[in-house]
Structure formats: structure tokens, C-alpha cells
Amino acid sequence: WLGDFVTGDFGVRFSASGQPPVSEVIKERLPRTLALSGMAMTFTLAIGIPWGVWSGSTLKKGLDRLSTGVAFFLVSIPNFALGVVLLYAVGFRLGWMPVRFDAGDPFWQRMHQLVLPALTLALGGAAVYQRLLRTDMITTLQEDFILMARAKGLSRRHILFRHALRPSLFSVVTLFGINAGAVFGGALIVELIFGIPGIGSLFVESIFREDFPVVLALVMILTAGFVVMNFVVDILYSIIDPRVRQ
């Protein structure tokens, strides 16, 4: 079975009429989950890193307490609860985003329908990045080389993003590999909430139908994803700090 798995042959699906190949079912649904996970990770980095840099460099009591409170709230609330809140507030009440995923249109025309699910997955991770990066930025900004950069008259923006950010990213990069797998796993629930026919809904459906070839294939794909992401993290370490290569 493992030899067939490496070549993309996952067997046949037991619970469907005609027993279609598992690979065909996964091939149909995987792009939706990958697009959702990729958009969620992009939102996580785009929100979490600037938020953490700002929080670590702007220690104003009122704003800092507000930022910390929002971060703790987003970390504490589960994805399914946040998804329901966003679905009701932004989708039903305000009508800014579609509330259901329309599988009939071409996929590239449906990317905007993934914004709310991606935000549901991203906000908690962005808050964790903010907490980690804030702590590391506060420590880094007290280092001697930062004081030297300030003494040279370099601009605040230059100091933050050229000198302080890079050595502060190790915790974020470490979490990135773990969070990428968590986002992919979190998509299981989010896809059910927003009606997205992706890997998550397929996984839950296959468990209830005892379609073990599909379940086993999805578990192996998720495991392989974790391994690949940890390999990417090791490469990012060497890019951030060249001393790692030595």
C-alpha cells in the first residue's frame, strides 16, 4: 500500500457507487483546501507580523493594553465560534461577503468566497504571532547593536525592519511550521461551517461512512504536509541567520 501511495494510488472509495479511485476524489477537492489554507497563512503573516512589530515598538499603556486584550481574545476563542460570529456579522447582517461557497462557478471566480473562512483560520494564529513577536521585539530593541543604530541617526522604520525584525523572527518561523499544519487541520471544521466542499468535509464524511481508504490517504497527506513544512522551516532558519549553516 505504501508503495502505491508514493505513486499516487490510494485505492478505491468504498462508500461511493462505482468505487471511484480515492485519488480522483482528493484531486477534485484538494485545490479548495490548499487555496483556503494558503490564503489563511497569508492573512496570518500579513496581520500578525506588522501587529507584533508595532506592539513591540510602541509601548503606550492604553494602546498596548487594548492590543494585548484583543490578542488574548482571538487566541482564546475557538475557530468554529469565531467562524459563526463572522458569518453572522459580516455575512448576514452587513452582507459584505457571501455566506455560502458556490461550487458552480469557475474556481478563480470563487476566491473572494474564501475570505471569511480564511480570516476565521487566520485571526487566532495572527494573535499568537503578535504575542511572540512583541516579546522578542522588546528584547531585541534593548540590544547594543540597536542602540548603535540609533546613535548613527538611522530612522525608526529602518531600525525596526532592517535590524530588529530579522533576529526577532525565530519564534515566528518555528511556529509557522506547526501553524501551517494546524491551519490545514482547522480547515476541517471551517469548511463544514461555510459549506466548502474541500478535504475537511471529505474527511468528516468519510469517517461517518467508514470509508477507510479515504481516511488513511488524507491522514498520510496531512502527515507528509507536516514533514514538508518542518523542512521549509529549517531552510528559513538558514536564511534568517546564516550562522545556522555553519
From TrEMBL:
> What GO biological process terms does the UniProt entry carry, in alphabetical order?
transmembrane transport
What's a GO cellular component annotated to this UniProt protein?
plasma membrane
Q: Does the keyword Cell division apply?
A: no
Chain ranges of the ABC transmembrane type-1 domain: 30-233
Record field: transmembrane? 34-54, 66-91, 111-129, 169-194, 214-240
Q: Which UniProt keywords apply?
A: Cell membrane, Membrane, Transmembrane, Transmembrane helix, Transport
Subcellular locations according to the entry: Cell membrane
Which InterPro entries does the record match to this protein? MetI-like, MetI-like_sf
Q: How does it sit in the membrane?
A: Multi-pass membrane protein
**Pfam families reported in the protein's UniProt record:** BPD_transp_1 (PF00528)
Q: What is this protein called?
A: ABC transmembrane type-1 domain-containing protein
Organism per entry: marine metagenome
